[in-house]
Specification:
By secondary structure, the chain is of the alpha+beta class. It is about 55% helix and about 15% strand.
C-alpha cells in the first residue's frame, strides 16, 4: 500500500507544484496575482476502464471567476499541455473576497554561503530541474525559518 500511495501522492504534489510555478504562463501575469490554484481533487473512475477525474480548484474573486469561466476551455488546454495529456478534467472556482488583505511575508535572514553550498551538495544527484528547484526552495525556507 505505501508504494502505491507514494506514487499517487508524488504525482499529485509535483503536478500542483508545476501548476504554481507556471501559473503566470497559464493565466497571464496580471490574473496570476488575482487567482491562485489551491488544490487538485481526485475522483476514482466509476467503471473499470474509465479514466478518473482530476478537478483543479482555483481561488479568486467573483468578478475574476466570471472572466476565467469564459476561458475555462483554454485554461484546461494549457494546463493539460503542460502535463502532456488530458489529466485535469475540470476547473472549479472558489470565491474569496476581493478586498481580503494580502498576506505579508515575514522578514527572514539570508542563508550563509556554507548553508547554500550544503543545500546544493545535497541536491546534486537530483536530475529533474523542476523537482531540484522545489527542493532547493524548500530547504532554503526551512533553514531561514530555523534562523527566525
Amino acid at each position: 500500500m505505501p508504494k502505491v500511495a507514494d506514487k499517487v501522492f508524488k504525482r499529485k504534489f509535483i503536478a500542483l507544484g508545476r501548476l504554481v510555478t507556471r501559473w503566470p504562463d497559464i493565466v497571464g501575469e496580471k490574473m496570476a496575482s488575482q487567482a491562485q490554484p489551491q488544490k487538485i481533487r481526485y475522483r476514482k473512475p466509476k467503471r473499470k476502464g474509465e479514466k478518473g477525474e482530476a478537478i483543479l480548484e482555483i481561488a479568486t474573486s467573483s468578478a475574476n471567476a466570471s472572466l476565467l469561466i469564459m476561458q475555462k476551455g483554454m485554461l484546461l488546454e494549457k494546463i493539460n499541455y503542460l502535463f502532456g495529456d488530458a489529466w485535469i478534467t475540470d476547473i472549479k472556482f472558489m470565491h474569496v473576497p476581493a478586498n481580503a488583505p494580502p498576506k505579508r511575508k515575514k522578514q527572514t535572514k539570508s542563508l550563509t554561503i556554507e548553508e547554500k553550498n550544503s543545500l546544493s551538495h545535497m541536491l546534486e544527484s537530483i536530475e529533474d530541474p523542476d523537482i531540484k528547484e522545489k527542493l532547493m526552495n524548500m530547504g532554503k525556507s526551512l533553514l531561514e525559518d530555523k534562523k527566525s
